[in-house]
Amino acid sequence: MSRIVVEGRRRLEGSISVQTAKNGVLPVLAATILNSGVTVIEKCPKLTDVDVAISVLEGLGCRVHWEGDSLIVDTSTATGTAISCELMHKMRSSVIFLGSLLARMGRADICLPGGCELGARPIDIHVSALEKMGAKFTSEDEIISCVVTRRTACELVLPKPSVGATENIMLFAVSCKGTTRIINAAKEPEIADLQDYLNALGFRVKGAGSPVIEIQGKGELPATYVRHRPIPDRIAAATWLCAGAITGGTVELRSARPEHMKAILDALKESGSSIYVQGDRITLIGPPRPKAIRRLTTAPFPGFPTDAQPLFFALAAVADGRTFIEETMFENRFSFGPDLARMGAGVFIRGKFAAIDGTTKLTGQPVVAKDLRGGAALVLAGLAAEGQTIVDQAELIDRGYEHIVNTLSLLGASVWRD
Ligand code: EPZ
Fold this sequence. Notes:
This protein is α+β, with helices and mostly antiparallel strands. The protein has helices at 22-31, 48-59, 85-90, 97-105, 124-133, 163-173, 189-200, 234-246, 262-270, 309-316, 337-342, 372-384, 404-410; strands at 4-7, 13-17, 38-41, 63-67, 70-74, 107-111, 135-140, 143-148, 155-157, 178-183, 204-206, 212-217, 225-228, 250-254, 274-278, 281-285, 295-297, 322-326, 346-350, 353-357, 366-368, 388-392, 414-417.
């Protein structure tokens, strides 16, 4: 078990470059299976979730290696169709390999991804869409076997704008001759990133970022060499800005995409931070004490992202006033709340609602990360707390942050790994 120790009450100041998006690179890694050639993913983040995706690819017979911060993926030798339960349990979003395995191999054998610490995480939207396109699912115990019986391009109306389901449909649809149209598609920036990669492979996909995505499927799949630079991580970027806001500091981000962060930047402004945007740079000047945001409701993009909710929960713990948060996406996304209460914030949680009374007397405590963004929220709270905060199970944080300790140290925080 790894622990992160934070010595609080230091005003952060500095400039950092934003890492590449975890949720951008994962679907692209799955999509590399569509190309029985070589993909170079530039500035690929070194994350434990990426390590798991690499293990999945190697388990399928692909050859993967690092060259500096580029990840080279050669899938020309891929023959496998199965993802082990061990890997599925390590990273449930390995379900994103389903669409490309069906497209390339005509079958996939995965473990029921099951829930995670955030909640049930169903995949019914994935299954019903892929079945309509010609996939046949059978399950025995926790193994799901999926076989392609036909490849039918069609129009699919999603009951919810699911990110993963949109991605899986895109990945299978490229192998279905004709036009597949996804209505009520997820609009997250990571979907547009995947579209860019698929078009670089020679497919014709359009509409990503809008509610309707069209995929022109072809009979054959490419065998080519392509380079791809995924988008920066908007949630990691939000984390560093919140670190500035919670300590009354000044933080500059480089290589950011402000247009991916409008809801986040608006919330930071509402809490009293000054935000300056120039090209791919975002500068935040935090207030002496954040103001409470009256109401924060999570929603699919372009709404306020659920992955940033824990970060703003931590900000609310030191804010002047009461913040109301409504978490609409996952049923268990306030796991860090009791730890923040022990640190001194007034925390009231009822189902998907939370109310937080901020305090100027947050005190450092030993706490435990229960999930990736909840762990990051506890580190942020530690930055503002008096004394030491020790965050246990910090390996959960390493799933999504490339160098959280180094990055915060660069900004002047007193933080180290224990
Ligand atoms: C993606 O998860 C992200 N993961 C999540 O980040 C993110 O929180 C989420 O999108 C929402 O933005 C990756 O991209 C790898 P969804 P995903 O399908 O695709 C319901 C992280 O750690 N739903 O958009 O699983 C679901 O329960 C993670 O970075 C169904 O009901 O999310 C949720 O309420 C945490 N049936 C809503 O839709 C389905 O078949 C949105 O889920 C699929 C989803």
